[in-house]
Each structure stands twice: as C-alpha cells, then as structure tokens.
Amino acid sequence: MNKKLFLTAAAIPVALIVPTLASAAETVTVTGQNIVNETLTVHQLPNNAIVNAYQWYYLEKVASEDGSKTSTNKPIAGATSASLKVPVEAAGKTIFVEATTTDGKKYQSEPRTINQLDLAITTPTLEGFSTSDFVAPGETVKVAGVTVTDKAGAKLTSGQITYSYQWFYQLGEGENSFTIIEGASGSTYTIPKDAIEKGIKDIIVKVKAQVGTSFVESPRSEVISISKEPTDTLSNDIKNLLVNDNKYNVSDIKSFEEKIKALESKYQALSEPAKGNVSNYAVLKRALADVDLINKLNEKVDKVGGISDKDLPAYIKEIEAAYDKFDLLQRSLDVNDALYTSIKNLLNEPNDLEEIKEVRRLNLAIVNLLSYSNGISQYVPSDKDSLQGVVNTIEADIAKLSQNYRGAVQNQTILNEAKADIKKVEQFIKSFDKLSSNNTPNKQVTVAKSIRSTYEKLTYKQLKLVPDKYGQLLTAAESAEESQIATLNNDIDSYIGEDIYPINPSASSWQSHVNNVARMVKEYKSLTKASAAQIEGYDSLVTLQKDLKTAEKVIKDMDAYQKLSGVTGVTESKLNSSYTNTLKAYNKLTSLQQSLVYNAQEFLLNTPKVSVDGKVPADKAAAEALKADIAKFADVTKFTFNQLEKAVDTAAQSYKKLSSGARKYVTNNYLLTAAQKDITGVKSFYKKIQTAKEETDAAKQAKKIESVQKAYAKLPANQQHLAKEQYEALLKNQIIDENAPNIKQLNDELATIVSNDQYLVSIDKINTLSKQYSSLSSSDKKLITNYDILKAAIADVKKAESFMKTYEKSFNSNPSTVIKAFEKLTSKQVSLIPSDIQKWISEKQQGQQQMNEQALTLIESINSLLVNGEYIAGLEDKVKDIRTKYDALSAQDKKIVKNYSKLTQAESDLKKVADVHALYKVDGDEAAQKAWQSAYGKLSKKLELLYKNMYPQDTK
C-alpha cells in the first residue's frame, strides 16, 4: 500500500512575504472561472498604463506575534504572464495578479478565491481471468476501470491524479468481512497457486486517488471468487476421453471429433496460467492429432477411384503402410474396423499362376535377344529399328506385371544393355550429319577421323547394329584426299631435282612457277596429318620456294646490270662494280638455285670493258697473259678440285710478281679472288667428309653423313662441282648398318594387322611392332605413315591385357564381373582375346541367362505369406521353410528374389510379436501387466492379428 496517500496531507510550506502596495487606487480587471484547470486572463488595465511585467500571487493570512492575522502575498512560481491556468495547488486559495509598468508603477487585480476540489471516484472493475464467475490460481487480476472527477466542475487530467491500491480477501464466515492481503498493493494481483489452500477464496480491491492535497477512496470492487472448478471440469472431461491407455471412449468418430474440438476451444479460452492447471492436456492434444490422421487416411481411401492404374499399386501401398503405423489407441478410433476393412478390400494380391507364367515368357524373350557364334554374342534381330521394337514390346509387357513380379523378370541387364547399345548406335549414326560431299576433302577426312574414333569404340554387338551404308560412307570420306595426294605428288615431282630444277623458267613463265609452288605448299598444309605423311618431296618443295626468292633477287640484279650497260655515259667503275657484285651473288648460289637464274648466260657474256691509262709497263704482256689464264676460272666446271687449286696458286703467284702498273691490266682479278674462296670453302667441306670417313660405327657414321649432306646442299654451285667427286665417294662407301630399321617393311606390316574390325595378329606381334617403332629415330618415325594403326592397336592391347587380368582373377569366383568387362570390349579388342576364353565366357553368359525355376517358386511362396494384408496361419513354420530354401540359393540366384524384403519383414514381425509375448505374465503384478499392455498397444493392426493368432490365450 502507498502509505503516503493514506496519511493526512502535509503542511503547506512557509510563504514568501511580499510587501503590499502603498497605493492601489487603480486596479487590473481579470476574467475567467475560479476553477482548477480554467484560465484567468488580464482583461482591463488602468488608463495610460504601459505594462511590461506580470506576477500572480496567493493572498494568504499569516499569524503575527500578537496573535492577530495579517495578509501576505506569495508569488506563484512561473506565473508571470497575462494569463494563468489555475493549478491544482490553488484549490481553495485566494489569488490576484500584479501588473508593473515601464515606469515602475504597480497595479493589482481584485483577489478571487478558487473553488475547493470535491473529488468523486467510481467502483473499480477487474479483468484478466478466464470466466466471468471465477478466477483460477495462477491467473493475474487487473484493475481495469476507475474514474476520478471533481463535483465542483474542475476538468482533471490523468497526470494530476495519483492512484494507490490495496487487495483484501474475505476472512471467515462473516458477511462482507475482509482482511488486507499483505504486499498486494499494485494495480494487478497474481493469485497464488496455493491460494485456496491458504483460505484466500474471495477477493476485493479498493482504490485511493489523490489530486493535489485532496483525497478520495473508492467503494470496494465486486467480490471475485477463486476456484479451480473450470479447469477441474475440463481435466475430468479429457480424462473421460479414454477407456484405458490403449482405447478411446468413442462410439462414433464424428461425435468424438466434435467433442474434442469443443474441449480444445475451452482449453484455448483459458489464460496461460489456467492452462497450466490442466495437467492431462497431452491426452486431448493426441486425440486431436489421431482423429486428424484417421480422417486424412479416410480421405485418401475415398480418392482411390481417381488414381491411374499405373500409380494405383504404389498409392494403395502408401495407404497400407500408413495404417500399419497406427498403434492400438489410434486404431480404436477406427470404429468397427471400418477403415481397416476398406483398406483390406483395396489390397489385391497378384494372380500368381498367370503372373508367373508371364514372367517365364518374358525371361525367355529377353534371353532370345542374343545369339552366340564363336564365343561372340550379337543381337537378334540385328537391325537397330527392329531390335528397338522388340525391346519396347518387352518393356511394355513388364510394366503390365504387378509390382511384386516385375522384379522377378530375370536378365533385365540384357534389356538395359540393348537400350544403351541402340542409343549408342543412334548417336554414332547422328555423327554422319556433319559429313557432306560438299565439304572440302580435308574437311571430309577430318570429320571421318572423328567418326572413325567413335566407330573404333563400338562393341561387336553395337557394330552389328550399324547399317552397312554407314561403313561405306566412312571409308569414302576417309579416302577423299587420295586423288589430291596423287596429283600433288606428281606436281612436286615435276618441280624438284637433284642438281638442277627441271622447270627451265623464263621471264614469261617465272610468276606462274612461283604461283604453282605456293599452291602446292598451300595444298599440302590443307591435308590432314595422315595424308600429308604420304606426300613425297615436300621438304624439297619448301626449299624450291625459298630458292625462287633467292634466285629472283639475283635475276633482278642481272637485269639491272644489263640495263645499266646500255646507258650512255655510265662510268666504267660504276658498271664494273655492278657486274662484280652481281657475279659474286650469283657464284654464292647453289647449283639448284643457279638453275633458276634464266638470264645468267646473257649476263656472263656481257662483261664490262675496262680501260687502262698511263705509262705502259714493261711487263704488260705478262699481265695480259695472266688475264687470259684467269678468264678460264669463270667456268670451274672445266676443272677438278686439284686442277683448280693448282691453277689458282699459279695465277696468284704470277699476280704477285707483276708490277703495280701491270696489275691494272688484269681487269678480271675478281675471278681469281672468287676461285680462291671456292678452294677454301671446299677444303672446309672436305674436313667434314674426312670426319665421316674415319667413323667406324655405322649408326654414328650415318648421322655424320646426314650432316655432310645438309652441308653439301648449302654449298655454292662452283663448290658443289669441285667437292662432288669426294662427296659421292663418301656416299658410295658408307658403312652398311645391318641393324638399321626397314621403314618400308614396318609400314607394310602395320597396314596388314587389321581387317574388317578384327586384328589378324596376336598381342605379342603388336608388342613387337611397337618396340620396332620405338627404336626408330625421330626422323624415321615421321616416315611411318601407318602409325595411327599401330597407336590404336597398342591401346587395344592394353584394354585386352587389362581384361585378361580381370579374367584370371575373377572368372571362377565372380564370373559376372568378367562378363561385364568382356561386354565393354570393342570388336577389335575381342579379336585379341584367345578363342577358347571367348568360348568359356560365352558358355558362362548363356548359363547365367537360364531361367531359375526354383527362384520363381520361392517368389510365389514369399508372396503367399500375406493375404489381403494379413499374415497367414502357421506363419512361423512357413517362414522357416522359405528361409532354408533361400539360403540354399547361389548369390546370383538370390538377386532374382526381388521380394526378399517381404521375407525379412515377416521374420522381423515374428520377433516383435514374440518380444511382446515375453512380457506377458499370467500372475504378474500391476507394473508387469501395464508393461505388457503398453507394448501390446504399440503393435500395428497386422501384428495385433498375428499376436492373437499365435497367442490367443493372452488376449482372452
């Protein structure tokens, strides 16, 4: 309780004394009501008064020392404007306003007394409890409504009112006798959980309000009774929903549903604290959930008619599985087993005789999709489209079987492989869309190579499904460049030679030759790698292209010289310099390059004239004789190396002996200089020849001779002529390497190792050819045009050898793994497998594809364990018999029994029932009986029936 508000108001503080005015002949007029919260306003001022300040005062009586009372003025804090909203504190007091002018004069209004507050308060109203009659332990009661007013007319605001509360409870049997509840002094009161036990059964509240110094106390509220009656009744109604822990008290599910929904509404109407008093709400909550499950399953059963035949078996299975999850309590909502009976009527076990007959027919049809010849299988029919039709028919017939027997169809791997093979072949045929006769030969060969790669990966069975026309199209595309290869070889052969080029160019034919060579190079580059390998002399063609450019420069220089020689006034020195430089360039050319310089003869015959001025020397005749000897050096083909070397040495000595004046007459001395360079170049080349001659190892000598050949090809024409004799002698006397590879023989052998997608040689032979290829030099390897055949063969050997390892490891223990690996081999790879192994695999394949009558019979027996969703009588013995027969099957045969899970389920269900039975005690105490009832109540309908069948005495 707020004790301050129940005490007498405190004394008013001592007022601030303000002297009264000496003279107040003139007053201020104020308007407004003398009521708290009303506004008083200065209405009239004295004449000629200019007011710049106001102050409102309380007029109070103060006792003096002589016992008399005098008046004093107490300023009202903050009241310094022309208007004043009358504060609560002014109630019952006298107030006035004082106005001060700019010249210090003060004027006052007539005092007026503010009305005293006369408070009134309404009876408090309460809220927060669940019902209109009772409040439950734990609930919180709240003062919801109380109104305070002033009878004198003051308009009070909520902020001016202060409330305090006190709660009471009725004590004893006295009428309207209430005692204080200690500590209950707030606007809310939470009923203690043990209120009734403590005697707190009827409660009231009183409210006290204060405005300023005025107080008012409310009448007591209506009496609110504390009771558990609403929740006790609800708890009792929920309790009555059950007959026992495993059975609802239900005779009609619809009325039961209405009842529990009504109870739920009552529960939800309770406050949270009151809900806590309903200790068995979990029973109601479960009842609501269980009714919902039953209703939903009923709805699902009602929709059976709208389910397609395809989806119906799975749909019914879902319904059956859902009902099987119901425990005994839930199933008690299925009044008279109405839902269970509806589900039983839906269950239609397959017609075993007809379905097994159909399974046997389909097994035979699938096995007959394959035929075997020489240990290799192929499809029947061998036409892709016909095979697709047969497969579709078989699949459609399998789909017509009930779910229980679809899994009994054996060898479906054959069916799946057939579909996969058909798809593979269709993809292969689709690849021919990229092949067109309008494509360039190169494009056709390139596309054909890609198709061939796919073709090589097809298995024998797949190959047999490919129509012959596609093989013919592939072969034609692969050979699209053959005519181009022949033409290009002929063209190249007509352009290249050993010592000279045979084209005999002229000024008019020069550009056409250049264009032809460029065309041949371009055509070569457009060929596929395999086709390009069949072109002979391409390196020489590239050399010719370079030689044409080199020769063309010399040709242009010679033409420039000829044009210069015909120009009048050209100095001899300029003309001689042009001739000499051009001749030097010509002499640097190889024999092949010189054969392209069609204007060389005309140039050589048009030597420049050189005049010699000055005094004639005494040895002029010797100089002219030397000039004649040097002139012979213009054609070194008339000399052997030794002859030229000797003649050059003689000429050089003679030149040294001439006087400086005579040397001027040797105007062709540049021929001597050129001859000397040729001698030096040939001697250097001879050293290479000598190194090669001295090599005694055939292979090493061959490499050195190859180096000599390259050096010879780069020698200028004069040096080639001079070195030719020893060069040819080196080649003629080359050491023969008996171990040198025979490139042609290896190429020929590779061309014959495969035919019609079958290898004609063994794995050992392919490995031998691979070793021969590996031993070749990099340059020799480029000459093996059939390397692609060898490369494919090496890859196939690896696949075959890998398969053989699998065969040796697993054929006896796990033949299916070997058969699966064998089926993945291509036609060529299969041809590398020994025929006896192919035969054994074929026999094993056919053996595994035989129909297993025992497995089919076992499937029938397992399906017979249930009739319309209920286990048969004598289940235990029947299950033991089936288990014995199943365990006797091979691992492969066990896979055929697709309904094996039904057998394990039956075994599991037998164990569950036995475990519950083990809890049953005829003379058991209450705890034992309750444990059995709890376990029994959790059994599904199917297991409940099985239990009653096996242990009827337990449920009597």
CA-atom Rg in angstroms: 63 Å
Round the mean pLDDT to the nearest integer and report it.
Answer: 88
> Given the helix and strand composition, which structural class is it?
alpha+beta
Roughly what fraction of the amino acids lie in strands? 5-15%
Number of strands: 27
Query: How much helix is in the residues?
Result: 40-55%
Shape: flat
State the major sheet. 8 strands, mixed
Query: Helical stretch count?
Result: 40
Q: Low-confidence segments, ≥5 residues, pLDDT <50?
A: 1-25
Distance between the termini: 68 Å
Q: Strands, helices and their partners?
A:
Layout: E1 27-31, E2 39-44, E3 51-63, E4 69-75, E5 83-85, E6 94-101, E7 106-109, E8 112-113, E9 119-121, E10 125-127, E11 134-135, E12 140-145, E13 148-150, E14 162-170, E15 178-180, E16 188-190, E17 202-211, E18 214-217, E19 224-226, H1 229-239, E20 242-244, E21 247-248, H2 253-269, H3 272-275, H4 281-302, H5 312-324, H6 328-331, H7 338-346, H8 352-367, E22 370-373, E23 376-379, H9 384-400, H10 403-406, H11 412-430, H12 441-456, H13 460-464, H14 468-478, H15 482-493, H16 510-526, H17 529-532, H18 538-565, H19 572-587, H20 591-594, H21 600-605, H22 620-631, H23 641-657, H24 660-663, H25 669-694, H26 698-714, H27 717-732, H28 743-751, E24 754-755, E25 758-759, H29 763-774, H30 778-781, H31 787-810, H32 815-823, H33 827-830, H34 835-848, H35 853-863, E26 866-867, E27 870-871, H36 875-887, H37 891-894, H38 900-918, H39 926-937, H40 941-950
Parallel strand pairs: 1-7, 11-19
Antiparallel strand pairs: 1-2, 2-5, 3-4, 3-6, 6-7, 6-8, 9-13, 10-12, 12-16, 14-15, 14-17, 17-18, 17-19, 20-21, 22-23, 24-25, 26-27
Helix pairs in contact: 1-2, 2-4, 5-7, 8-9, 9-11, 12-14, 16-18, 18-19, 22-23, 23-25, 25-26, 25-27, 26-27, 29-31, 31-32, 32-34, 35-36, 36-38, 38-40
